[in-house]
Amino acid sequence: MPVLATIQYPKGKDPKHGDNLTKSIAEVLMKELDVKPDQVRVIVREINPKRFSAGGVMGYELEGFEQKED
Predict the structure, then answer these.
(1) Alpha-carbon dihedral of residues 9, 12, 14, 19, nearest 10 degrees?
(2) Complete domains list, the chain, with CATH
(3) What does each C-alpha distance from 2 to 7, 16, 18, 26, 42 come to in angstroms?
(4) How many degrees, rounded to 5, is the angle at CA 59 between CA 57 and CA 70?
(5) Could you tell me which of 49, 45, 46, 42 has the C-alpha nearest to residue 26?
(6) Rounded Cα gap, residues 60 and 41, in angstroms
(7) Number of neighbouring beta carbons within 10 Å of residue 29
(8) Distance between terminal CA atoms of the chain?
(9) What pLDDT digit, counting tens, does each position of 1-11 carry?
(10) 3, 30, 65, 68: which one has the fewest Cβ atoms less than 10 Å from its Cβ?
């Protein structure tokens, strides 16, 4: 049976961060749940800072969540 992990973080991060993150999470899942690589799925969802808020403050207004220009 596959194991599925979904990670969400702000859009605009370097793609290498997502690659490294998914590999690290997959390794932890395989080790801790004693599953094979073909049983692990990691999904990364990039969130547009204009589409979320924290404490009533829009994501694009939060420090550290600046979106790079596309």
Answers:
(1) 40
(2) 3-61 (3.30.429.10)
(3) 16, 25, 21, 12, 10
(4) 150
(5) 42
(6) 29
(7) 19
(8) 38
(9) 899 999 998 88
(10) 68
